[in-house]
Amino acid sequence: MTAPATAQGVMVPTSSGVRTGDEGRAPGTGTAAHPRHSSDGVAGEIAPPQPAGRVAVVRRDYVGWSMAPGIDYTSWEQIDGVRKPIRAHLITVDIVSPANTFDLISTTKVAATNPLSWMVQSSGAIAAVNGDFFDITDTGAPLGVGISRREGLRHAPAEGWNSSFWVDKGGRPHVGTLPFTGSFRGGKHPKITFSNFNSPTVAPHGIGVYTPTWGRTMGARVVDGQKKVRQVIIKSGRVVSNDYGLTSGRKIRGKLLIGRGRGATLLKNIKRGERLQLKWRVTGKPKMAISGDRPLLLNGVRTVINNQVMHPRTAVGIDEDQNKVFLLLIDGRSSVSRGYTMVELANMMLALGAENALNLDGGGSSTMIGHTDPGILSVLNSPSDGQQRPVPNGLGVFHDPIS
Q1: Cα 212–Cα 140–Cα 222 angle in degrees, nearest 5
Q2: Which of 53, 61, 134, 343 could be disulfide-bonded to 77 (CB atoms 3.0-4.6 Å)?
Q3: Which domain holds residue 205?
């Protein structure tokens, strides 16, 4: 790796669930036949076919160091078959040590973006990779489930974007689906359930919940411009307003419910002055969670089939046998690293020893931050935009020595 140069407060290198159909896909992520592999939606280069049979793999130009006990960084160049080289970056976390933990790191508000380095510095993480796909052209909000150890649930859909990396109350990591459910307490308005929590878009005919953590109201931007919409505001457990239409640019105080289509019709029955308490949960009661768009591996079985489209990639994998978690990033869209296909990414995770793995946002979002050998916080890969892309969240690695 070349000598780093200072930029944006960090050191930056100067060298350059399997989806079987389109139902439930998040907005802006393409179709099952033509999925978007990154939030930016940039078309990826098509990989040439690899020769049949075993492909010789050459790894060289290794660089690596320990960031903390049980947290190691390694980078290498890899050449295989007829495809161009790639540059891989790997953070390996030994989870036997209770000092090594994970958490969602994010912007202050859900509907906002910042460079990943800002999130690492403000959270005290020792390393991180970018996280969820997000609404890059509008609100900036993440599409999936986000749970912070400190703040709890920040955002989630009931379905459609719930494939997640999560950690249970015992500290064990998992890859799986995390459905969100929400309703009113006490059996009031039993037909009303919530389709979204601080999401960039309320599901068609759904009802979304928005809290002050979201940021300011955004009007029709969260309902795809739909006209049949209704807004209910609940403060201190009491309904203070129930209006047709949506506000924009206002601070959220209390809980804001937004219904569209049939959801708007259901909200119309709520009376001003009525006492209502909301309840919600995420299956499994995770201590922390972050979503991707699909699993790469489940119980040692590869679950992706696309071996054509190449992009910069970010993924997280779990080696159950060795008690390790892998944060893997493949640089792309450059002359020195072509990027990976989904199949290549899954195969790399298998080669590392992972049984379960999740694909995170890629393309220009793919960023890895960590401490260099001298202990300086740095961008460890070469982001394809030429600089850090502002993103809404990341998967942070923490080391807290236990006395």
Answers
A1: 65
A2: 61
A3: 180-282
